[in-house]
Amino acid sequence: MNALDIAPRLITLEGGEGAGKSTVLSALAQALRAPGYEVVTTREPGGTPLAERIRELLLHPDNADAPTADTELLLMFASRAQHVASVVRPALARGAWVLSDRFTDASHAYQGGGRGVDRTTIAMLESRFVGLQPGLTLLLDVPVAVGRARAQGRASSNSVQPDRIEAEADGFFERVRSAYRDLAAAQPRRFRMIDASQPAERVAADAVAALDDYLQGLPQG
Ligand SMILES: Nc1ncnc2c1ncn2[C@@H]1O[C@H](COP(=O)(O)OP(=O)(O)O)[C@@H](O)[C@H]1O
Ligand SMILES: [Mg+2]
């Protein structure tokens, strides 16, 4: 199995529903663009037209023929393989920064922690079909009830129904949160944990401070 290459200019945001990832992503993009860097913002599942179609398959609230845990895992990695090959790698190759709203850690948390897929299988898919790891991952950590209340507020103000994964029970999201915290504890150099229960401005400020600190520690160039 190949080792993962660390991509210093790939930064990912992780966390449960309503943690504030989309909100923080724009603050980080702004902070990186200010000194003139090219920044590509993207998300998973999705990030390319084909991967966005796979996202629709994954999130469609169809209970009659819902994907099994294995199907969900493979669709997630199909979407990710396409995203890595056609967006992430080309951007990194030309020297751009890539900010992704979720990446492989989300499979460890959701398919691993949430659905119970074993770690070795996910690590094998990661090694074979992703091959790279972010230099920095911000984990926006928030109690499940707080995140869900925010996500519900967002959904009702846009008049949208919860998607298939958002409709899971609290126990599922507690396992996801706990898996994320375990990942962060196991890889303290890559992860920064942010208290996302704070007001949005504080969360964004903490995220930008973590980014600045990371940039200080990088070799020049
Ligand atoms: N720190 C915060 N405090 C209160 N509300 C927040 C905070 N961060 C985001 N929100 C709001 O909560 C909802 C979910 O935020 P969002 O950024 O979409 O979360 P995510 O992308 O992690 O699911 C949005 O309506 C957003 O405006
Ligand atoms: Mg979001």
What characteristics describe this protein?
221 residues; alpha/beta; Rossmann fold; 5-stranded parallel beta sheet; 8 helices; 5 strands; 54% helix; binds adenosine-5'-diphosphate; binds magnesium ion
Description:
The protein is of the alpha/beta class. It has helices spanning about 20-35, 50-60, 70-95, 105-115, 120-130, 145-155, 170-185, 200-215, and strands at about 5-15, 40-45, 95-100, 130-140, 190-195. The protein has a single domain, classed as 3-Layer(aba) Sandwich (Rossmann fold). Strands 2-3-1-4-5 form a five-stranded parallel beta sheet, sandwiched between helices. The model has no long low-confidence stretch (mean pLDDT about 95). Adenosine-5'-diphosphate (ADP) binds next to helix 1, helix 6 and helix 8.
Which regions are unreliable across 5 or more consecutive residues at pLDDT < 50? none
Mean pLDDT: 95
CATH class: Alpha Beta
CATH architecture descriptor text? 3-Layer(aba) Sandwich
Number of strands: 5
Order the strands across the largest sheet as they lie in space.
Answer: 2-3-1-4-5
CATH H-level name... which superfamily?
Answer: P-loop containing nucleotide triphosphate hydrolases
